[in-house]
């Protein structure tokens, strides 16, 4: 029996994707994060940010949690604040999906919509949210999901540890497998970079069970799946934050954006900087309909993009490798 709604966050299953396994010759496993109570992996981040702020004494009774969000983190924060008795004020770009807007307000949060803007602009959602939190004063916080390393810590302690434990339990029942806990590669996109950082850091330092036939596992390979319009691909591959949309002759007055809601970034965040990534792929979200047709999974564009990244990773991995990705949220909110 769970003691409260927040105890339902995490411990989501690893789900095999048979159609992708058959297509790649690898074993494809996906963390079903859409099964969190708020419907996405951001539940973990919201709960961790609030818990750490409470422990530090910066968030107190009667306080407000303020955040800039593309929607999913806002939904999760609204849920956590409702369960904890805090107010929640969210700032989002006005191109966020109407489904997310409706869900945020239904959960009792205040939603402020602003025009998309560059991060250096005071009108950028992050800067607006920071200003709103400062105006509220002591006892309220700016969640700051992009720079707040509670984000990474939530996925180190939760998502990554669960992946490893789930694989270890499964391998333990398979006497024909030479190692326990085998994960050969992890693939996903990045918004804040928290999931990628937390999972990559944890999986890369894990060792095999000492009872296995090998004393240690080769390092897990981590791949970034990055959508058009994001600068992170070139950061990983060439060490420079750059996207073709930033070319001087084609730059627009208003900030360009990626084709994916909440995925990709035009700056280096503290969470993304903590990630340990081996390579990056340019990806699109054309996979969503295939997952619905072949797997019976109705997922959002970011989850679909992650699965396209799996196909690219399989091309450079040995046959039979185990590739893990994340189904970030469901398609109902897009």
TrEMBL record:
Database matches in InterPro entries: Cys_Synth/Cystath_Beta-Synth (IPR050214), P-phosphate_BS (IPR001216), TrpB-like_PALP (IPR001926), TrpB-like_PALP_sf (IPR036052)
Any Gene Ontology biological process: cysteine biosynthetic process from serine
Transmembrane segments: none
Keywords: Amino-acid biosynthesis, Cysteine biosynthesis, Pyridoxal phosphate, Transferase
Domain (Tryptophan synthase beta chain-like PALP): residue spans on this chain: 7-329
Keyword Amino-acid biosynthesis among record annotations: yes
Superkingdom per UniProt: Eukaryota
Record family assignment: Belongs to the cysteine synthase/cystathionine beta-synthase family.
Protein's UniProt name: Tryptophan synthase beta chain-like PALP domain-containing protein
Organism: Emiliania huxleyi (Coccolithophore)
């Amino acid at each position: 029996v769970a003691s409260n709604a927040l105890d339902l966050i995490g411990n989501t299953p690893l789900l095999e994707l048979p159609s992708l396994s058959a297509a790649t010759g690898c074993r494809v496993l996906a963390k079903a994060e859409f099964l969190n109570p708020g419907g996405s992996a951001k539940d973990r981040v919201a709960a961790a940010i609030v818990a750490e702020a409470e422990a530090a004494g910066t968030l107190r009774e009667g306080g407000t949690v303020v955040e800039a969000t593309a929607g999913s983190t806002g939904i999760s924060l609204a849920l956590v604040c409702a369960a904890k008795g805090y107010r929640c004020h969210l700032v989002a770009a006005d191109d966020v999906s109407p489904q997310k807007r409706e869900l945020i307000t239904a959960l009792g949060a205040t939603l402020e919509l602003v025009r998309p803007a560059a991060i250096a602009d005071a009108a950028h959602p992050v800067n607006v949210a920071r200003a709103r939190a400062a105006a509220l004063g002591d006892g309220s916080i700016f969640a700051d999901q992009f720079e707040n390393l509670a984000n990474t810590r939530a996925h180190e302690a939760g998502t990554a540890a669960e992946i490893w434990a789930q694989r270890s339990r499964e391998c333990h029942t398979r006497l024909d497998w030479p190692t326990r806990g085998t994960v050969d590669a992890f693939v996903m996109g990045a918004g804040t970079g928290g999931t990628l950082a937390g999972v990559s850091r944890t999986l890369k330092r894990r060792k095999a069970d000492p009872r296995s036939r090998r004393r240690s596992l080769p390092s897990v390979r981590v791949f970034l799946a990055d959508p058009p319009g994001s600068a992170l691909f070139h950061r990983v591959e060439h060490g420079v934050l750059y996207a073709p949309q930033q070319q001087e002759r084609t730059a627009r007055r208003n900030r360009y954006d990626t084709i994916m809601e909440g995925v990709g970034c035009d700056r280096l965040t503290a969470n993304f900087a903590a990630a340990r990534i081996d390579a990056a792929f340019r990806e699109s979200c054309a996979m969503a309909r295939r997952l619905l047709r072949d797997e019976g999974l109705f997922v959002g564009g970011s989850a679909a993009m992650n699965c396209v990244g799996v196909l690219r990773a399989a091309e450079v991995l040995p046959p039979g490798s185990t590739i893990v990705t994340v189904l970030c949220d469901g398609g109902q909110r897009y």
